[in-house]
Structures are given as C-alpha cells and as structure tokens.
Design a protein that fits this description.
Elements lengths: L4 E6 L5 E6 L5 H11 L3 H9 L3 E3 L20 H8 L4 E2 H5 L7 E3 L2 H6 L6 E6 L2 E6 L4 E4 H8 L1
Parallel strand pairs: 1-6
Antiparallel strand pairs: 1-2, 2-5, 3-4, 6-7, 7-8
Helix pairs in contact: 1-6
C-alpha cells in the first residue's frame, strides 16, 4: 500500500492547482524531493502539468514505460538507470485519462479535498508547506525535513 499525497501550488489568481501522488508521500521522501528539487514556480508548474503521479522523482523526465516489467529484460538495467530519478505519471506514461491537475478556489477547498492522501503539500509564496492529514497540522516542510534528517 502506498503512502499517498497531494501536491499543489497557489497560482497568481489565488487558485490552487494540484495533483495526486500514489507512492512515498511521506516527508522523508516526497517532502525532501519537493524541498530540494522543486524550488522554482516554473518547475512546479511543469510538475503539476504532468497530472496525477504514480511516483515523484527529482526530475520531471520524459515519457517512458510505466513499469520496468514493460521493458525487455535485456534492456531493463539501462531503462532503470535512465529513469530512476524521473517522475512516473499516469497520463503521460500509462496513457490514462482523467488524471489532469485539479483546480481549487482556495487553500481551504484544497486541504478539505479527500483523495485518500496521508500528506498534503502546498507551494505558496516561495515556500513549501506540508499537512499531515491524520494530525491536521501544518508544518514548514523545510524545518520538518531537516529535523527528520
């Protein structure tokens, strides 16, 4: 079972655009990747434009096989080396529909959206924030990840 998360940002009009991510949503993984690799609005917008993710990687990457098992065994090691840091997206990489980013009227609507996530991440005013859905607590992701290191 995955540790699910939602990832969003507040746009220039105050709306939140967000996606779902199935795997490794805990702060030590997805939180660290967001904090360390998704620091600019441009890169964050590109990430959210991918739509819902199976897994978040430090790099957005390019279209690739959804699973290494879809790649011939003789090519698997090269495939895994090439894509190990890439995001895997349901739409781009598996061809699913209905995976585009959602738009919320404000932060409250975004936080209240229940997609079965354990953690919710939001980029606002140049900073990442994280909510632990079960403890309903907002934390500064930078401090949280440093504390967990």
């Amino acid at each position: 079972m995955g540790t699910r998360s939602t990832i969003g940002y507040v746009d220039e009009n105050g709306f939140v655009k967000a996606i779902y991510c199935h795997w490794d949503g805990y702060p030590e993984h997805n939180g660290r990747i967001l904090r360390d690799h998704y620091r600019t609005p441009d890169k964050i917008v590109k990430l959210i434009a991918l739509g819902d993710l199976s897994s978040l990687g430090p790099e957005i990457g390019r279209k690739h096989a959804f699973s290494p098992f879809e790649v011939p065994e003789a090519e698997r090691a090269a495939y895994e080396a090439r894509t190990e840091n890439w995001c895997t997206a349901y739409g781009r990489d598996r061809g699913e529909t209905g995976t585009k980013a959602q738009k919320f009227k404000d932060i409250f609507e975004f936080i209240a959206d229940d997609r079965g996530q354990d953690y919710t991440y939001l980029f606002k005013e140049g900073k990442w924030y994280c909510w632990d859905v079960y403890n309903i607590k907002q934390v500064d992701l930078y401090a949280m990840v440093d504390e967990l290191a």
